[in-house]
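Quick log. Single chain, no ligands specified.
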Amino acid sequence: MKVLILGGVAAGTKTAAKLLREDRSCEVTILTKGSEISYAGCGLPYYVGDVIHDREQLIVNSPEKYAKLTGASVLTQTEAVSVDPAGHKVTAKDLRTGETSDYSYDKLVIATGASPFVPDIPGLNLKNIFVMRTPGDAISLREAVESGEIKRAVVAGGGFIGLEVAENLAARGVKTTVIDFAPHVLPNFLDPEMAEYVENKMADAGIMPMTGVALEGALGTDKVEKVQTSKRSMKADALILAIGIRPNTAFLEGTGLEMVKGTIVTDPYLQTNVADIYAVGDCAMVTNRETGKPAWSPMGSTANIAGRVLAQNLAGAKLEYPGVLGTGVAKLPGNISVGRTGLTETAAKAEGFDVVCALSVVDDKAHYYPGAGSFIIKLTADRTTRKLLGVQVLGAGAVDKVTDICVTAISLGATVDQLALMDFAYAPPFSTAIHPLAQSINVLMNKLDGNLESCTPAEYAEGAAEGREIIDCSPAPALHTKKYLDLTTISGAVDGIGKDDKLLLVCAKGKRAYLTQNRLKYYGYTNTMVLEGGLTFTEIDENK
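-> predicted structure:
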């Protein structure tokens, strides 16, 4: 069987390698536009920051080494320009000579990936305007930084790549601003209040986020001197475009392939609507495994997993790719990391779930162990079925661990009750005796069962606690203009507080406020509410 693969980064090389392990008799050829294959695209920001020291570390395999390892034929600097499904052939151009050639196939795999979106704005011909997609992009930016010519930079785009580039530029002494047209950074990845927390951490780290701002152009004579936005112009020596990516599928026009916004639609077996043509990676549309709806997941993890499934199907299997959960993890400015999987509160409500959320601040390991910190964990569940729908987690610790546990739970349709008593690993350097996620699950279960009456930070910001008297329940007074109540002194009715008074109980993280509520309920107090996340997440205006 002759298999032709268009694209040689993650999805294409994974498909070829796995296919030839499954069926060595296949004749596999990879055509790729670039001069390199299988490079570490997710590592590029860290090369800019000199976390990854040598450029050679960005290249997972050279074409020659890959060909010897797998048995696939690799043709670099060869760009597919058209596909003839009826004739089972692809026309491609040799970018060195300009000559075109035809390549026949029995099965065609389209894994052409995506390219950075470059807006049509003035000034993009100036020096020191960068994108971040290939090793060459990272090398160019790092060289400019190390030359000393970049003191101020504007990163356009508040997604993963933009924030990672910003963090690494700042670490090298470049004064950095991040702009984004969306209301918050990490749009559609986090709920608004979680994104706002990230923005505050960025600002604390000296990286200024400017959201709700459009990029309108670059100004300068030979190189960038200012960046023009819809609000104002800013002095800058460099502009890094991380606005987003677009699938590399324009060459498929006229093929009859079904596409949505440039992404190729595939079935559960990763086959397109055209016989003998398959698609994987950043150019392909998959499904969301929670909703069953189309989902675009331009992630290296998705590309590799889907490539592996496709290879087995090409070799004769009948495996379904179950889809994605929108899982992601990233190291962010401000010494925090972020993880998410499943549906955010915003997305779950849009899908019609009966949503209940809980936000907890919990220790990430034994509090007495050196380097201990906190996780901020927001869980989303369905009130009716009690199934976990999603998690968002922020912290300096291993947010990926919390995220991956929830990936497993959601994939298996677990309820919060099933998660609560799981036998998670514990030792002081790694966790708490009751795992941080289990603690958060317990908070959510208390809320579902009516044992915790609370409001989330988002609900508080929307006025859910309006008219309630704020009671400071911290171990020691923290809100000096508010009434203070020490949990350990409550042994009956509390002087000065009526049993039907509307109270908002606030402490550092939310736990002590819950304990206070529990005790007050026992003594007949009927109208208390706990602020989830406490003062760690929400700043209380003491003048109100």
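The chain has four domains: 2-39+57-114+246-314, 129-243, 335-448, 454-537.
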